[in-house]
């Protein structure tokens, strides 16, 4: 999953949030360099990714992007699912999502000493341009797609993924609605086990 899902699935626990948000930037046993709470967040991040990557509904969603981006299709599904989460009124109203985003940035800013270098470089932009709230808009999803393309070593970064996303919004939305409640339940169980 992408940044919004990782933040949301931290369930307002600051240490878990920090670990969950920096998880992609902490490799292997580097997690042991962090306090216990943040370490649990990093482990939760990895658990979310493992569950997501192995889920059959996510495999179906990947087929939308696979002809264009091949093995990177999972990264594009992650971004797409943040669009549906940001618009999911069963989880939050738009106003609540805005408040959630602000509180997330505040919590993260209070823990900047734990940021790996790459996340430390990224965070000011995330906050300034309010990525978490703005995932609800297609324009932000397009920017996120371009960001994935820039980071992908083996993809032409001029590929235009956005039309493929927009054409398949009904199908991808159905995939999100089938998948996210299962992910949320799984995370709640894992959080209990990590305590």
UniProtKB/TrEMBL annotation:
Question: What GO biological process terms are annotated to this protein in UniProt?
Answer: fatty acid biosynthetic process
Specify the domain of life of the species encoding this protein: Bacteria
Q: Which UniProt keywords apply?
A: Hydrolase, Lipid biosynthesis, Lipid metabolism
Organism, per UniProt? Arachidicoccus soli
InterPro entries from the UniProt entry: ACP_PD
Name the chain's protein: DUF479 domain-containing protein
Q: Name one GO molecular function term.
A: [acyl-carrier-protein] phosphodiesterase activity
């Amino acid at each position: 999953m992408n940044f919004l899902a990782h933040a949301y699935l931290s369930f307002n626990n600051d240490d878990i949030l920090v670990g969950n948000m920096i998880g992609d930037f902490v490799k292997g046993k580097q997690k042991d360099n962090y306090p216990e709470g943040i370490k649990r967040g990093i482990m939760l991040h990895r658990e979310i990714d493992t569950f997501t990557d192995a889920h059959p509904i996510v495999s179906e969603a990947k087929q939308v992007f696979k002809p264009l981006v091949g093995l990177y299709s999972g990264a594009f599904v992650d971004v797409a699912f943040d669009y549906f989460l940001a618009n999911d009124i069963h989880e939050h109203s738009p106003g609540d999502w805005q408040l959630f985003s602000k509180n997330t940035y505040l919590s993260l800013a209070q823990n900047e000493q734990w940021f790996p270098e790459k996340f430390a470089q990224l965070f000011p932009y995330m906050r300034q341009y309010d990525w978490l709230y703005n995932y609800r808009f297609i324009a932000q999803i397009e920017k996120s797609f371009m960001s994935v393309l820039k980071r992908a070593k083996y993809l032409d970064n001029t590929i235009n993924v956005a039309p493929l996303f927009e054409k398949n919004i009904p199908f991808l939305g159905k995939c999100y609605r089938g998948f996210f409640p299962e992910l949320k339940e799984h995370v709640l169980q894992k959080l209990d086990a990590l305590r």
